[in-house]
Write a structure and sequence with these properties.
Number of strands: 0
Radius of gyration: 23 Å
Largest sheet: none
CATH superfamily of the domain at 55-241: MetI-like
Distance between the termini: 50 Å
Helix content: over 70%
CATH topology of the domain at 55-241: MetI-like fold
Number of helices: 11
Structural class: mainly alpha
Strand content: under 5%
């Protein structure tokens, strides 16, 4: 029994090492002077300089960021509404069908989703002439389709665990339902909404399979560019590009966590002040 905690600690360290040692080695070799990705030739930052002057990489990164931001924002709005409908309205006609349609992208293979979307876009263009070919619009719609489900699950779970007495108290004090929504419900579930947006943004920025089916000429996203490059072998400039992505995503997650922590502390402080004022 005394040795068991040490074994658990060892397993925990081994698990973290399995995930993070490859990332650390990738960051280490991004400063490699050699053209061979796994042969150390000395410390150098030349690959970062070459990467930032590569117009093809910059265009792909800018396209990916625009698609991820737009798709995550729309998916968060729609996912929040879908999560509220599933959490607050336990019985309505078509609820089972609606819940199944929302959850389907979570379990559907990405290849099947990509094929169905490209067939849908081709049929839609044949019928009404829109969208005109595949590109930015089709990629964004495809990313909204699968990221919407993740936002819905996050928001629905937060609403299911929320204390509804706070909303009932606000309505007892004379607030209208719409006012309660914006003044009480949304501020309370805002951490879940932010988490859903970050998840949708990350999934969109990372997607390869569905994007490969729905993109067109001149709309190569950053993951597709990286995938096409590493098929010929990993190079130090790809290590540098991946390092920049890891740092940006890590910084964004840390910042979002800090802001949500501050918001939660402020909410708890306001609740304590309100309780003290009523005594």
């Amino acid at each position: 029994m005394r040795r068991r905690p040490y074994f658990l600690i060892f397993v925990l360290i081994l698990g973290y090492a399995f995930f993070y040692v490859p990332i650390a080695s990738m960051i280490f070799y991004s400063f490699n002077k050699s053209r061979l990705a796994t042969v150390w030739g000395g410390f150098s930052t030349e690959w970062y300089g070459k990467l930032l002057t590569n117009q093809q990489v910059l265009d792909a990164a800018w396209l990916s960021l625009r698609i991820a931001f737009l798709s995550a924002t729309i998916a968060t709005i729609l996912g929040t509404m879908a999560g509220m409908a599933l959490a607050r309205f336990s019985r309505f006609r078509g609820r089972v069908l609606f819940s199944g349609l929302v959850s389907a992208p979570l379990v559907m293979p990405e290849v099947i989703t990509g094929i169905s979307l490209v067939l849908f876009f081709i049929g839609l263009e044949f019928l009404i002439g829109w969208p005109n070919g595949r590109g930015f619009t089709t990629i964004t719609l495809a990313h909204i389709t699968f990221s919407l489900s993740y936002v819905t699950v996050v928001v629905q779970s937060r609403l299911a665990s929320m204390d509804r007495s706070v909303e009932e108290a606000a309505m007892d004090l004379g607030s209208k339902p719409l006012r309660v929504l914006f003044d009480v419900t949304l501020p309370i579930i805002s951490p879940a909404i932010i988490a859903g947006w970050l998840l949708a943004f990350t999934l969109s920025l990372d997607d390869v399979v569905i994007t490969a089916f729905t993109n067109g000429p001149g709309t190569t996203t950053l993951p597709l560019y990286i995938f096409s490059k590493v098929r010929l072998g990993v190079t130090p400039d790809m290590n540098a590009l991946a390092t920049i992505i890891v740092l940006l995503v890590g910084t964004g997650v840390a910042l979002a966590g800090f802001l949500m922590y501050r918001a939660e502390k402020k909410r708890e402080r306001d609740v304590q002040m309100a309780i003290a004022a009523n005594k």
